[in-house]
Amino acid sequence: MLEFLRENRRILVCTALALCAGVLLGLALRLPAAAAEPSPEAEQVGSIGEASILPTTAVERQVCYLACHHTVEQVMGDTSPLIGMTRQELAAAYPDAAITSFTAERVRFVLSVDGYCPAHLLLRADAQGALAVWRMQEDALEMQPVLTLAATLDAFDGETAAALSEGVLFDSMDEINAYLESMES
Asked: Does residue 6 register a pLDDT over 70?
């Protein structure tokens, strides 16, 4: 056997080298194809565990204004504070909201707010009797004064003053101006 190995040494070495070269060439051709295809583990990352809000998630908020019975739907622009939240964390952040849809692609929740929608203006007197125009702020969801007027409740009769203490609803500043002008005459 030793004599056979000595006589065929070149053939055996060439065969071993050809075998190694074939294996290396096969691996080299297989690597780019394997790198181009995502592994099954990488494809499943979005569905492992509980769904959460991603940077690409569309977050929709529907606000129902109870005072005027209007509903406003909007896609939230800046969702950075919500990124990474799960359904339970979003429910804790918005305890008064009803979450109607929660997926990695789309989140939708509904809020009910006491007050008028931003399309309306409320003419109301403060505790000192100064008149101000109030409007719902969409981001904070609270009524805030947008314009303080020089007029006070003292300039109006008792019935009008009582109505202004509660607040009188208008759809535009022109309506408020017409109302105030009619009260002055």
From this structure: yes
Close Cβ partners of 108 (under 8 Å, ≥ 6 residues apart): 59, 60, 61, 62, 99, 100, 101, 102
Judged on CB neighbours under 10 Å (0-12, 13-18, 19+), 51 is middle
Q: Do residues 62 and 110 lie in contact, with contact meaning Cβ atoms separated by under 8 Å?
A: yes
pLDDT digits (tens, 9 = 90+) for 34-91: 555 554 444 334 446 788 888 889 999 999 999 999 999 988 888 888 888 999 999 9
The whole-angstrom separation of Cα 143 and Cα 139 is 11
Strands 106-113 and 130-137: unpaired
